[in-house]
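Memo to structure team: turn this sequence into structure tokens by end of day. - J.P.
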Amino acid sequence: MAGLGLRGLRAWHQPVRRRRNDAVPRLRDRRLSRGKVMPATLKTALGEHWPEYLIEAWALGSFMVSAGVVATLLGAPDSPVHRAIAGATWRNVAGGVAMGLTAIALIHSGWGKRSGAHMNPAVTLTFLRLGKIRPWDALFFAFAQILGGTAGVLLVAALFGHAFTDPPVSYAATLPGPQGPGVAFSAEVVISAFLILILLSLSSSARFARFTGLAAGCLVATYITFESPLSGMSMNPARSFASAAPGMQWQYFWIYV
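Reply from structure team:
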């Protein structure tokens, strides 16, 4: 999800004055967007933007730690939280609220504002397609997101053991529901497209840009509550990879790419 700020990037949920009121964040010193002064080589990109890459890894890693803990508490049969909340619907509501708040907190954190808190290769590639981020930066953002997310899942596995790695939690993997992979794929297309539409629409508005992070968190909460029974609610290839890789659950990974 979103924005850029501090010494390098400006948050995309914060409007940029005058001509810089773009749909996508820009570096105040223009280091991340395209142009003659932009880094054009791998070495320069790494040298100038490695802190932002690390922040992207931290952001999705933190999100996956939260997702893993929430999934274990709500999904593991022996969990007291699981037993206390009767019914899958109410557990979905609880999980949605928890993860929505997690997303909002990460997006609006100081580090999140600095890197943009994309946390999602789909968001990063959208910005690349719009010409708001250079190819090397997009590549390293996506790579960092994958590594960070996977590290987060491995950390939860080390902390919770079989309660997290065994069914029904299964590394918090995103899997199709009873309706099958076709429905799951279609649902992922719809929710991902709507997410990008909302984020770009809000972030391009000087009046509403500050609500972009809040909107992203609310969408995450809503989707987990109502859509997760169809596809597991991913919208994020790095998020799905992070759960699939440790558990070697590749059968349905194609749905989320």
